[in-house]
Structures are given as structure tokens and as C-alpha cells.
Write a structure and sequence with these properties.
With 330 residues, the chain is an alpha+beta fold. The chain is built from 13 helices and twelve strands. It is 29% helix and 18% strand. The structure holds flavin-adenine dinucleotide and iron/sulfur cluster (SF4). The site of iron/sulfur cluster has 14 residues, from loops.
Amino acid sequence: MLPLPPFTYHAPATLPEALSLLSEHGMDALPMAGGTDLLVNLKHRLYDARHVVGLRGLPELRGIREEPDGAVVLGALTPIAELTRNPLVRSRLPSLAAAAGAIAGPQLREMGTLGGNLCLDTRCVYVNQSRFWRQALGGCLKKDGTTCHVVPGGRNCVAAASCDTAPVLATLGARVNLASVAGEREVTVAALYVADGIRNHVRRPDELLVSVRVPPLPAGLVAGFAKLRMREAIDFPALSIAVALLAPGGRVERVAVTVGALAARPHAVAGLERFRGRIWGRDVADEIGALTRRQCHPLANINVDPEWRREVLAVHVRRAFAAAGALPAG
Ligand SMILES: Cc1cc2nc3c(=O)[nH]c(=O)nc-3n(C[C@H](O)[C@H](O)[C@H](O)COP(=O)(O)OP(=O)(O)OC[C@H]3O[C@@H](n4cnc5c(N)ncnc54)[C@H](O)[C@@H]3O)c2cc1C
Ligand code: SF4
């Protein structure tokens, strides 16, 4: 069994208290929500921080509510399992409920939180290992080394954003609220991520993700989620695909597709405005699948054959539209 490294655990009772701890300790502190990923990574000696700031006592990060304009606000500490059973989420944001239900296994979904999922560290077959294992290769750009084993000679870490809720929230135009002692700011989920697997989001170390706001969605918008994973239980995504479609009267007005688990930043498929005005149907879905395949290039950053992942991309785009109810299942 791998022991945890020594650290000081802080249990603030209010948001201002938590933010001043993060401000005081800077890069030497890590926030912890459910701890389902953080504690494993600490055991693997992926972090050198000596302070852990527990978030579970913060009432400001809890709750799910609907705003007068119809937006849905989800507290960062919302357990992933709650996203699968909350009536408001199930009725208004079914693709989010579906993605949440496909995360890990039941125990991890009870402990893991929405905020922890959105801030999940990137994953790579060469880094999510014990220090002993990694030392045999001399480390890598992300930790203790100078090279990337996935893209030798590459200057950026391409470890995968493996958080299943991010593609869904990006297609729905959701925004996150980030707080620090300096104040609050809002960032879209799409803009939360950057193409650097060493630290793949724009959240500063002194900031906390407080909540997620999904804007009021237009009547008739449908959204779906499809996931490729090697086991149907307790497995990270090999592909994580979210779609949203607005096609009043059967004609496409708006369509969005986001693919996760490729590299450090979920990929928003570009050029979808060309489908505007088309009669929605299987042929359009297949063209969108083909466009997605052209733009997405899975890497050998996880233990699933990249060429095969690319070949099944279009099928999963179709499945996501089927999950949205926009195509027949199958
Ligand atoms: C076996 C296994 C399978 C898994 N499978 C999946 C899967 O299929 N799909 C998937 O998406 N995930 C998966 N996970 C990852 C993980 O359990 C979940 O994504 C979970 O959402 C993490 O939430 P947490 O609250 O436990 O985060 P923590 O472990 O507490 O934190 C994760 C990261 O987020 C930061 N953080 C947490 N909360 C905040 C906040 N409010 N503000 C700022 N930073 C914060 C932490 O500092 C840390 O860097 C899996 C994990 C395991 C162990
Ligand atoms: S992608 Fe490269 S640098 Fe990043 S974790 Fe994997 S091996 Fe390390």
C-alpha cells in the first residue's frame, strides 16, 4: 500500500477562511473536495504541496437551485451521484445527469464532486503511476523529467482531460464562478481549459471553483452524451462526447459537439455553423461525425489504441445524438 506524504490538513468553515488559506500558502496548498483523485495523486507523489485545504465544511459551495431566468446553478461540492438523481438536473440537464452516471463507480460518485471533476488533473499512462514506476523512465515533463513519452521531443504535456462533465457543460454554454481573496470572476467551461497537461486550467492556485451556472436553454434544445471506456464500470473515458442540437421544425439552427479525453483541453468541434439551415437527419449526423473524426487525433496517452479510438469517434457522435433523442437508438 502506498502511504500518503506528510501534509498539514486545514478544515476551514467558511469560504473567506478557505480563500485566505489558499492565498497564504499559494502553490504549497491544494484544495480537496471528495479527495477521490487528489489523495491517489498525493500517494503517487505527483504533488509537492505541504498543505491541503478541505472544502467539505464550506456551505457556500453547496446546493442546486434554479434562478428566476431559468438558469441552473450547481454548487461545486455537489456530489456526482446527486447530479444523477436530482429532479431538476434530470429534467433540465439530462446529458449532465447521464455523464455523471457514467463517472467511475457508485462509491466514487458519492464522494466525488462536480468541482473536483471540473478541476480534475489530467491523466496519462506514463504519469498516473507510483513514483518508483515513473523513476524507471526518468520522469516526464509533467513530473520530475524533461521529456514527453507520448510525443517524444514535444514541448507540451498532452495528458488527457478525463473529466466527463466538462464536455457536457461546455456544449451547454455553462460558466464557472471562481473566487479568491481578490474577488470573483466568471469563465466559460469551454475557456476554463488550456492545452497544457501540466496544469490544464486557468484557475489560479489561490482560486476556488465555487459554482457552475448553466444558462437558460432555448426551448427545444436537446443534448446527449456518449462515452467510450474499456469496462462499463469504474473506468476513465477513452472518449467522452457531448452534443447539443437545436432544430426547430426539423431544420438545424444550432449544433455543438465537444470531445474530451483526447489531450489536455476538451475539443470543441469547429465549423459546425455550416450545418445551419440543413434538414436534421442521419445524413447530417454522419457528416458531423466525419468532421469530428477529421479534427480529433487521439494520442497514446492512455492505454487504449489511438487509431481505434479515432475510428470509433463518428459512431460515438451518432450515439450521443441518439442519447439526446435526436436520432433513433442504435
Ligand atoms: C477508479 C477511478 C475511476 C474514475 N473514473 C472517472 C471517470 O470515469 N470519469 C471522470 O470524469 N472521473 C473519474 N474519476 C475521477 C474522480 O473520481 C472524479 O472525477 C471526481 O469528480 C473528483 O472529484 P473529487 O471531489 O473527489 O475531487 P478531488 O480529488 O478532491 O480533487 C480533484 C482536483 O480538483 C481540485 N479541486 C476540487 N474541488 C475544487 C474546487 N471547488 N475548486 C478548485 N479546485 C478544486 C483539487 O485540488 C484536485 O486538483 C475516477 C477516479 C477513480 C479513482
Ligand atoms: S503526456 Fe507526456 S509529459 Fe504529459 S504526463 Fe504523459 S508522458 Fe508526461
